[in-house]
Structures are given as C-alpha cells and as structure tokens.
Amino acid sequence: MDPYLEASEIWPGFHQRLAIAIADQLTPRIAPKYYADVNLRTVGETVEIGTTYIAHPDVGVYEKPHAVAPRAHSPTGAALAPPAAPVLRAVLLEDETVLRSVHVYLTGTDVLVTAIEILSPYNKRRSDGLDEYRAKRRRLLHSSSHLIEVDLLRGGERPGPEVLDPPLDSDYVLLVNRQGEDLRRVSEIWPVSLSEPLPTLPVPLVAPDPYVLLDLNDAVHSVYVAAGYSFRIDYARPAPPPELRPAMAAWVKQAVPRGGRTEGA
After folding, report:
1. In terms of C-beta density within 10 A (0-12 exposed, 13-18 middle, 19 or more buried), how is residue 20 classed?
2. Is the pTM of this model over 0.85?
3. What pLDDT, on the 0 to 100 scale, is given for residue 165?
C-alpha cells in the first residue's frame, strides 16, 4: 500500500475509484444471480477531524464583491442604479462528504447479501461519524447480511471492538464477518502492514453458493494506474499523518522513488 493515498487531497478520489473497481471486479464473478453496486450516502462535515487528518473546510464565508456591477439602462437611455439589498449577510456553507460502500444484491429481489464497507476518515472520527458508523455496523451484524470491512487508513479509531481489544499492531485492518444460522458473528481479521500486499478476501454469498474472491491488490493497482497517482503524488514530501511506525518509515524511505516522483512523471 501507499500511505500517500491517505492525503486529504487524494483520498476522496481514491475512495470513489476503489469502490467502483471493487464492484466492477465482483459483478462478472457473481452474475447473473447476484450483482454488485456502489452505494452512496452524503453526510455533513461539521467538525475538524483533528491532528490525524486535514479536513476539508467546514464553513465557507463569502464577502460582498468590491467590483462595481455594470449599470442597467432604461429604455430612454438614462442610467439606473441596481436596487440595493435591504440586508447583507455572510453565507455559511456546510461542507459535505460522500461515503461509498459496495453492496452485493440478489438479482430480481434486490435483497442485500453482503455489505463491503470501505472506511473513510469520517467513519473513524471521534464524533458523529464514528458513532454513526458503529450504529450502522451493529444493524448489519444483527441482520441476515454478511459484512466486509476494508480499513485502509492508519489514523482514527477503528470501529470494531474485535479489532480494538486487544489492539492490533498493524497499519490496516480487513475483516470478513459471515452471517450464520445462530446468533454468533465471528470476524475473520487480516492485519496488514504497509510493506505487505493486501490479501485476497472471500466474499460470502447466500448458502449453499460458495464465496467468490476479491483481489484487493488488483483493485488498488488498477485505481493507482488509472488515476495517474504515480505522477500526481509528490513523494519528496513527507507522508501524510499520522506518523509512520519506525519500521514502516524505514520501508517507505526505501520504497519512495528518488526525485520525489515515479518514473514517467
């Protein structure tokens, strides 16, 4: 994985492209009985993420422009001043974040079979975002759907209690939680370091159909190439926060191309 993808100016586009790449990879493998689609949800950004991430601005303030507007003319040619607004006030705009997940449905009935949640900084923030996602997670775990969680962010708080206690010494965490006939829900967990390839995950379907495989490495690589990150990212800059673990900082120093950008930039 590439920690530079976590930069605030890169992550939203990467998040969107990864969701589409996952859905596109899965659909040919599960059709025609199932299909995969990208699910969108828009949330308001009302607080800063904190020191871990650089958030987009929460509020925009727009001032009255100082340029003189062109004067209107009457039919007789006399200049008319535009009517003055009775009150002038700044406009406060709430920024918005689009959260994307990939859902696998049964064709025809549109029953949700598997939810693939690609976590965003909003999902891992100690405020409404984390609580909101934990509530959604609980609903999924109490439903008849399977849950796959893809956490490719080093910062923030991991939402699942099974990955918090005891804590996992890793950069990323991937998990698959299959719906069963009893009430027990057991998560299969893959802790992954920056220097390791991402695993191939099983995507469970409706029994007795066998699971299909999701090649995350292939999905991330295809996004990296298609988005032109090799020449867009300036690797001469420090990796975005949070601070890299010492072993991973040494690995990134070796892996980062000299000159700040990859060949062909």
Report:
1. middle
2. no
3. 86
